[in-house]
Amino acid sequence: MAGSNLIRLSFALCFLVASLDASEGDADPIYMVCLEECEKSGCVGGKCFQHCKFSSDGKPIDVPWYLQEPLYQKWKRWDCGSDCRYYCMVAREEERQKLGGKPVKYHGKWPFKRVYAIQEPAAVAFSAITLALQFHGWITFFILLNYKLPLRPDKRPYYEYTGLWHIYAILAMNFWFWSAVCHSRDVELTEKLDYSAAVALIGFSFILTILRAFDVRDEASRIMVAAPLIAFVTTHILYLNFYKLDYGLNMKVCMVMGVAQLLIWGGWVSVTSHPSRWKVWLFNVGGILAVLLEIYDFPPYKGFLDAHALWHAANIPLAYICWSFVRDDAEFRTLTLLKKIK
């Protein structure tokens, strides 16, 4: 089930690769002239920015150190270059709209409207809701195991995959947190953290998929499965962060692990008699429909809601279905083991 969840994530990451190339908007001569004038004058139309007495690389232009940008502005990354790009984009899109033109992408992104310094407010909101649902699913899973289902004499749950799902929950919440941060402000640091969290989640989900689908319960066998995959995923994350943020390579890695998980879960659902296997089918169908949102890309409605934001919205019910299956699986496996003991 976790693997199916991350298949949609891997597809989403793949479609994001295309957005990193030069876009039509930032190649527009009018937009480029606006940027040049803004960086010299610090103004776009009638709106001026006090912190635009600096060049686009952040270096002061004939001003003393105490006139440099405050630390909180640098932390939020709304520097002169960012403000110039945003307001030049807004001005150019208003002109384009008056002439009957359609919105175009700037620097790989659609022209979104900021809300309280948040770059993509809809995607951030949906990511936050999904994060909350992941936390809710984890807590209800914990309560079910420790307070509702029978425990072993040593007070440990009977469910053999308890620890794995706890790790999955932590990695999932970590990913959705950094997804919200990255969509709040997409800079190199937040992008690396977002991609690293996603790869870590996909990699661990691959391990969890193999162990659960093939019912691997022996600790030595689990280590044999997990060790090489953990080493590979760790190496890949280090490569992305400290050598080269290779989007093409990352796409291939995500695709291979995602498709492998899809095939494994599909085979498991076909042969199992699990009473909640229909939830896995439902989740997979919902995941495929969510992927279609990434394929059918369209400009943001009213400057807020685009296809990628709807993909984030689709994760909200799917996160609930995922943890619903996990709870059912824990109950099913616990009762099965108790019957064997009796």
UniProtKB/TrEMBL annotation:
Which parts of the chain span the membrane according to its record?
A: 122-146, 158-181, 193-211, 223-243, 249-268, 280-296, 308-326
Q: Where in the cell is it found?
A: Golgi apparatus membrane
The signal peptide annotation in the UniProt record is: 1-27
- UniProt keyword terms in alphabetical order: Golgi apparatus, GPI-anchor biosynthesis, Membrane, Signal, Transmembrane, Transmembrane helix
Q: How does it sit in the membrane?
A: Multi-pass membrane protein
Coiled-coil spans in chain:
none
Q: Which InterPro entries match?
A: Per1-like
Note the Pfam families from the entry: Per1 (PF04080)
Please give the chief subcellular localization of this protein: Golgi
Q: What does this protein do?
A: Involved in the lipid remodeling steps of GPI-anchor maturation.
The entry sums up its family as follows: Belongs to the PGAP3 family.
Return the protein name. Post-GPI attachment to proteins factor 3
Recorded source organism is Hibiscus sabdariffa
What high-level taxonomic lineage is stated for the organism? Eukaryota, Viridiplantae, Streptophyta, Embryophyta, Tracheophyta
